[in-house]
Write a structure and sequence with these properties.
Number of domains of chain A: 1
CATH class of chain A: Mainly Alpha
Strand content of chain A: 5-15%
CATH superfamily of chain A: Winged helix-like DNA-binding domain superfamily/Winged helix DNA-binding domain
Strand order of the largest sheet of chain A: 1-3-2
Largest sheet of chain A: 3 strands, antiparallel
Radius of gyration of chain A: 16 Å
Number of helices of chain A: 6
Largest interface: A-B, 45 and 45 residues
Shape of chain A: globular
Distance between the termini of chain A: 57 Å
Low-confidence stretches of chain A: none
Oligomer: homodimer
Number of strands of chain A: 3
Structural class of chain A: mainly alpha
Chain lengths: ~120, ~120
DNA sequence: TACAATCATGCAAAATTTTGAATATTCAAG
DNA sequence: CTTGAATATTCAAAATTTTGCATGATTGTA
Protein backbone atom coordinates (compact mmCIF):
# COMPACT_ATOMS: atom_id res chain seq x y z
CA UNK A 1 0.00 0.00 0.00
CA UNK A 2 1.57 3.22 -1.16
CA UNK A 3 0.70 6.28 0.84
CA UNK A 4 1.42 9.89 0.16
CA UNK A 5 0.24 11.50 3.34
CA UNK A 6 3.51 13.17 4.28
CA UNK A 7 2.11 16.68 4.05
CA UNK A 8 -0.96 15.65 6.03
CA UNK A 9 1.15 14.36 8.91
CA UNK A 10 3.47 17.35 8.76
CA UNK A 11 0.43 19.65 8.84
CA UNK A 12 -0.92 17.79 11.87
CA UNK A 13 2.31 18.45 13.70
CA UNK A 14 2.19 22.17 12.95
CA UNK A 15 -1.50 22.24 13.84
CA UNK A 16 -0.67 20.91 17.29
CA UNK A 17 1.83 23.76 17.62
CA UNK A 18 -0.63 26.40 16.41
CA UNK A 19 -1.92 27.37 19.84
CA UNK A 20 -0.37 29.82 22.33
CA UNK A 21 -1.19 27.81 25.45
CA UNK A 22 0.18 24.60 23.96
CA UNK A 23 3.35 26.45 22.94
CA UNK A 24 3.79 27.72 26.46
CA UNK A 25 3.28 24.23 27.85
CA UNK A 26 5.96 22.90 25.52
CA UNK A 27 8.35 25.68 26.54
CA UNK A 28 7.86 24.72 30.19
CA UNK A 29 8.43 21.05 29.42
CA UNK A 30 11.50 21.91 27.35
CA UNK A 31 13.21 22.93 30.56
CA UNK A 32 11.99 20.09 32.78
CA UNK A 33 9.23 17.55 33.04
CA UNK A 34 6.25 18.78 35.04
CA UNK A 35 3.04 17.41 36.52
CA UNK A 36 -0.36 18.69 35.52
CA UNK A 37 -0.88 20.63 38.72
CA UNK A 38 2.42 22.39 38.19
CA UNK A 39 1.50 23.32 34.63
CA UNK A 40 -1.89 24.48 35.83
CA UNK A 41 -0.28 26.73 38.42
CA UNK A 42 2.26 28.21 35.98
CA UNK A 43 -0.29 28.84 33.26
CA UNK A 44 -2.97 30.20 35.54
CA UNK A 45 -5.59 28.16 33.70
CA UNK A 46 -8.19 25.70 34.94
CA UNK A 47 -7.09 22.09 35.29
CA UNK A 48 -9.53 20.55 32.77
CA UNK A 49 -8.42 23.12 30.22
CA UNK A 50 -4.78 22.23 30.73
CA UNK A 51 -5.58 18.53 30.53
CA UNK A 52 -7.34 19.13 27.24
CA UNK A 53 -4.34 20.86 25.73
CA UNK A 54 -2.12 18.07 27.04
CA UNK A 55 -4.41 15.55 25.40
CA UNK A 56 -4.00 17.36 22.08
CA UNK A 57 -0.22 17.30 22.46
CA UNK A 58 -0.31 13.64 23.48
CA UNK A 59 -2.45 12.60 20.51
CA UNK A 60 -0.05 14.38 18.19
CA UNK A 61 2.80 12.48 19.80
CA UNK A 62 4.62 15.59 21.01
CA UNK A 63 4.65 14.73 24.71
CA UNK A 64 4.96 11.60 26.79
CA UNK A 65 3.73 11.05 30.30
CA UNK A 66 4.68 9.06 33.34
CA UNK A 67 2.58 8.34 36.39
CA UNK A 68 3.93 8.61 39.90
CA UNK A 69 1.22 7.83 42.40
CA UNK A 70 -1.61 10.21 41.72
CA UNK A 71 0.57 12.68 39.84
CA UNK A 72 1.27 12.49 36.12
CA UNK A 73 4.46 14.00 34.83
CA UNK A 74 4.67 15.19 31.23
CA UNK A 75 7.80 15.64 29.16
CA UNK A 76 8.74 16.36 25.55
CA UNK A 77 8.64 13.21 23.44
CA UNK A 78 11.64 14.33 21.37
CA UNK A 79 14.40 16.80 22.16
CA UNK A 80 14.39 18.12 18.61
CA UNK A 81 11.04 19.66 19.39
CA UNK A 82 12.78 22.32 21.47
CA UNK A 83 14.87 23.29 18.45
CA UNK A 84 11.79 23.51 16.28
CA UNK A 85 10.20 25.84 18.81
CA UNK A 86 13.28 28.04 18.86
CA UNK A 87 13.28 28.23 15.08
CA UNK A 88 9.61 29.12 15.19
CA UNK A 89 10.25 31.97 17.59
CA UNK A 90 13.09 33.32 15.46
CA UNK A 91 11.01 33.23 12.30
CA UNK A 92 7.96 34.71 13.98
CA UNK A 93 10.16 37.61 15.00
CA UNK A 94 11.54 38.00 11.50
CA UNK A 95 8.10 37.90 9.93
CA UNK A 96 6.82 40.44 12.42
CA UNK A 97 9.71 42.82 12.19
CA UNK A 98 10.07 43.30 15.91
CA UNK A 99 11.25 41.64 19.09
CA UNK A 100 8.59 39.38 20.50
CA UNK A 101 8.24 39.09 24.24
CA UNK A 102 7.15 36.01 26.11
CA UNK A 103 5.75 35.77 29.63
CA UNK A 104 8.45 34.76 32.12
CA UNK A 105 8.34 31.08 33.01
CA UNK A 106 8.90 30.75 36.75
CA UNK A 107 11.70 28.41 37.63
CA UNK A 108 11.80 26.34 40.80
CA UNK A 109 9.01 25.90 43.29
CA UNK A 110 5.59 27.54 43.17
CA UNK A 111 3.52 28.69 46.13
CA UNK A 112 0.25 27.70 44.49
CA UNK A 113 1.30 24.23 43.37
CA UNK A 114 0.50 21.24 45.57
CA UNK A 115 2.94 18.80 44.01
CA UNK A 116 5.72 17.42 46.25
CA UNK A 117 8.43 19.28 44.38
CA UNK A 118 6.81 22.60 45.18
CA UNK A 119 5.79 21.74 48.73
CA UNK A 120 9.19 20.38 49.68
CA UNK A 121 10.06 23.68 51.32
CA UNK B 1 3.28 49.75 25.94
CA UNK B 2 4.44 46.34 27.06
CA UNK B 3 3.19 43.42 25.02
CA UNK B 4 3.41 39.75 25.72
CA UNK B 5 2.04 38.33 22.51
CA UNK B 6 5.06 36.23 21.61
CA UNK B 7 3.17 32.94 21.82
CA UNK B 8 0.30 34.40 19.80
CA UNK B 9 2.62 35.36 16.97
CA UNK B 10 4.48 32.08 17.12
CA UNK B 11 1.15 30.24 17.03
CA UNK B 12 0.11 32.27 13.98
CA UNK B 13 3.24 31.16 12.19
CA UNK B 14 2.58 27.49 12.93
CA UNK B 15 -1.07 27.95 12.01
CA UNK B 16 -0.02 29.16 8.56
CA UNK B 17 2.05 25.97 8.25
CA UNK B 18 -0.78 23.70 9.43
CA UNK B 19 -2.16 22.93 5.99
CA UNK B 20 -0.95 20.29 3.52
CA UNK B 21 -1.43 22.39 0.40
CA UNK B 22 0.37 25.36 1.90
CA UNK B 23 3.22 23.07 2.95
CA UNK B 24 3.52 21.76 -0.57
CA UNK B 25 3.53 25.29 -1.96
CA UNK B 26 6.35 26.22 0.41
CA UNK B 27 8.32 23.13 -0.60
CA UNK B 28 8.02 24.14 -4.23
CA UNK B 29 9.09 27.70 -3.46
CA UNK B 30 11.98 26.42 -1.35
CA UNK B 31 13.57 25.16 -4.54
CA UNK B 32 12.79 28.13 -6.79
CA UNK B 33 10.43 31.04 -7.06
CA UNK B 34 7.34 30.27 -9.11
CA UNK B 35 4.39 32.08 -10.63
CA UNK B 36 0.82 31.32 -9.65
CA UNK B 37 0.07 29.47 -12.86
CA UNK B 38 3.07 27.25 -12.31
CA UNK B 39 1.98 26.43 -8.75
CA UNK B 40 -1.52 25.78 -10.00
CA UNK B 41 -0.20 23.32 -12.56
CA UNK B 42 2.05 21.50 -10.10
CA UNK B 43 -0.61 21.25 -7.41
CA UNK B 44 -3.43 20.29 -9.74
CA UNK B 45 -5.74 22.68 -7.92
CA UNK B 46 -7.95 25.51 -9.17
CA UNK B 47 -6.32 28.90 -9.50
CA UNK B 48 -8.55 30.78 -7.02
CA UNK B 49 -7.86 28.07 -4.47
CA UNK B 50 -4.12 28.43 -4.93
CA UNK B 51 -4.39 32.21 -4.71
CA UNK B 52 -6.26 31.87 -1.45
CA UNK B 53 -3.54 29.72 0.09
CA UNK B 54 -0.93 32.16 -1.19
CA UNK B 55 -2.87 34.99 0.43
CA UNK B 56 -2.76 33.13 3.74
CA UNK B 57 0.99 32.66 3.41
CA UNK B 58 1.44 36.31 2.39
CA UNK B 59 -0.55 37.62 5.34
CA UNK B 60 1.54 35.51 7.69
CA UNK B 61 4.65 37.01 6.10
CA UNK B 62 6.01 33.66 4.90
CA UNK B 63 6.21 34.50 1.21
CA UNK B 64 7.01 37.56 -0.87
CA UNK B 65 5.89 38.28 -4.40
CA UNK B 66 7.16 40.12 -7.44
CA UNK B 67 5.21 41.13 -10.51
CA UNK B 68 6.59 40.64 -13.99
CA UNK B 69 4.06 41.79 -16.53
CA UNK B 70 0.91 39.82 -15.92
CA UNK B 71 2.69 37.09 -13.98
CA UNK B 72 3.33 37.21 -10.25
CA UNK B 73 6.25 35.25 -8.91
CA UNK B 74 6.24 34.05 -5.32
CA UNK B 75 9.26 33.15 -3.21
CA UNK B 76 10.03 32.32 0.41
CA UNK B 77 10.34 35.44 2.53
CA UNK B 78 13.13 33.91 4.62
CA UNK B 79 15.53 31.08 3.85
CA UNK B 80 15.30 29.80 7.41
CA UNK B 81 11.77 28.73 6.60
CA UNK B 82 13.13 25.83 4.54
CA UNK B 83 15.05 24.57 7.57
CA UNK B 84 11.94 24.79 9.71
CA UNK B 85 10.05 22.72 7.16
CA UNK B 86 12.80 20.09 7.12
CA UNK B 87 12.73 19.86 10.91
CA UNK B 88 8.96 19.57 10.76
CA UNK B 89 9.22 16.63 8.37
CA UNK B 90 11.80 14.90 10.53
CA UNK B 91 9.72 15.30 13.66
CA UNK B 92 6.49 14.28 11.96
CA UNK B 93 8.26 11.06 10.97
CA UNK B 94 9.53 10.51 14.49
CA UNK B 95 6.13 11.13 16.03
CA UNK B 96 4.51 8.85 13.53
CA UNK B 97 6.97 6.02 13.75
CA UNK B 98 7.34 5.45 10.06
CA UNK B 99 8.81 6.92 6.90
CA UNK B 100 6.54 9.54 5.44
CA UNK B 101 6.29 9.89 1.69
CA UNK B 102 5.67 13.10 -0.19
CA UNK B 103 4.35 13.52 -3.72
CA UNK B 104 7.19 14.13 -6.18
CA UNK B 105 7.59 17.79 -7.06
CA UNK B 106 8.24 18.04 -10.80
CA UNK B 107 11.37 19.95 -11.63
CA UNK B 108 11.80 21.96 -14.82
CA UNK B 109 9.13 22.78 -17.35
CA UNK B 110 5.51 21.65 -17.24
CA UNK B 111 3.34 20.83 -20.20
CA UNK B 112 0.22 22.27 -18.65
CA UNK B 113 1.76 25.55 -17.50
CA UNK B 114 1.43 28.63 -19.72
CA UNK B 115 4.19 30.69 -18.12
CA UNK B 116 7.17 31.65 -20.33
CA UNK B 117 9.56 29.42 -18.40
CA UNK B 118 7.48 26.37 -19.23
CA UNK B 119 6.67 27.35 -22.81
CA UNK B 120 10.25 28.19 -23.68
CA UNK B 121 10.64 24.80 -25.32
C1' DT C 1 -11.27 51.23 -26.21
C1' DA C 2 -11.81 46.35 -26.26
C1' DC C 3 -10.14 41.91 -25.32
C1' DA C 4 -7.54 38.10 -23.39
C1' DA C 5 -4.60 36.39 -19.83
C1' DT C 6 -3.19 36.14 -15.08
C1' DC C 7 -4.15 36.65 -10.56
C1' DA C 8 -6.97 38.36 -6.40
C1' DT C 9 -10.98 38.96 -3.69
C1' DG C 10 -15.66 38.23 -1.72
C1' DC C 11 -18.94 35.30 0.06
C1' DA C 12 -21.44 31.52 2.03
C1' DA C 13 -21.77 26.67 3.37
C1' DA C 14 -19.32 22.95 5.51
C1' DA C 15 -15.95 21.32 8.54
C1' DT C 16 -12.99 21.84 12.32
C1' DT C 17 -11.20 23.88 16.49
C1' DT C 18 -11.64 26.28 20.76
C1' DT C 19 -13.54 27.01 25.16
C1' DG C 20 -16.03 26.34 29.46
C1' DA C 21 -18.44 23.49 32.46
C1' DA C 22 -19.97 19.22 34.30
C1' DT C 23 -18.70 14.76 35.28
C1' DA C 24 -15.83 10.55 35.29
C1' DT C 25 -11.58 8.03 36.38
C1' DT C 26 -7.57 6.62 38.98
C1' DC C 27 -4.90 6.18 42.95
C1' DA C 28 -3.64 6.37 47.93
C1' DA C 29 -5.02 6.48 52.54
C1' DG C 30 -7.82 5.31 56.25
C1' DC D 1 -15.17 0.39 50.85
C1' DT D 2 -15.39 5.29 51.46
C1' DT D 3 -13.07 9.59 50.97
C1' DG D 4 -10.02 13.07 49.00
C1' DA D 5 -6.63 14.50 45.60
C1' DA D 6 -5.04 14.66 40.93
C1' DT D 7 -6.12 14.13 36.36
C1' DA D 8 -9.07 12.83 32.27
C1' DT D 9 -13.09 12.79 29.52
C1' DT D 10 -17.45 14.30 27.63
C1' DC D 11 -20.44 17.54 25.61
C1' DA D 12 -22.29 21.53 23.48
C1' DA D 13 -21.92 26.37 22.16
C1' DA D 14 -18.96 29.74 20.06
C1' DA D 15 -15.37 30.91 17.12
C1' DT D 16 -12.44 29.99 13.39
C1' DT D 17 -10.89 27.72 9.24
C1' DT D 18 -11.59 25.43 4.96
C1' DT D 19 -13.47 25.01 0.51
C1' DG D 20 -15.88 25.97 -3.78
C1' DC D 21 -17.57 29.18 -6.71
C1' DA D 22 -18.56 33.63 -8.73
C1' DT D 23 -16.71 37.82 -9.72
C1' DG D 24 -13.32 41.66 -9.74
C1' DA D 25 -8.81 43.83 -10.71
C1' DT D 26 -4.55 44.50 -13.31
C1' DT D 27 -1.61 44.08 -17.17
C1' DG D 28 -0.40 43.70 -22.00
C1' DT D 29 -1.83 44.09 -26.69
C1' DA D 30 -4.38 45.14 -30.73
Amino acid sequence: MVRNDGYDKEAQLFQALAHPVRLQILDILARQEACVCHLTAVLGQRQPYVSQQLAALRQAGLVADRREGTLIYYRLADDRLAELLDQGKALAQAFHGRILTFPPLPVGVLDNCPCPRCQAA
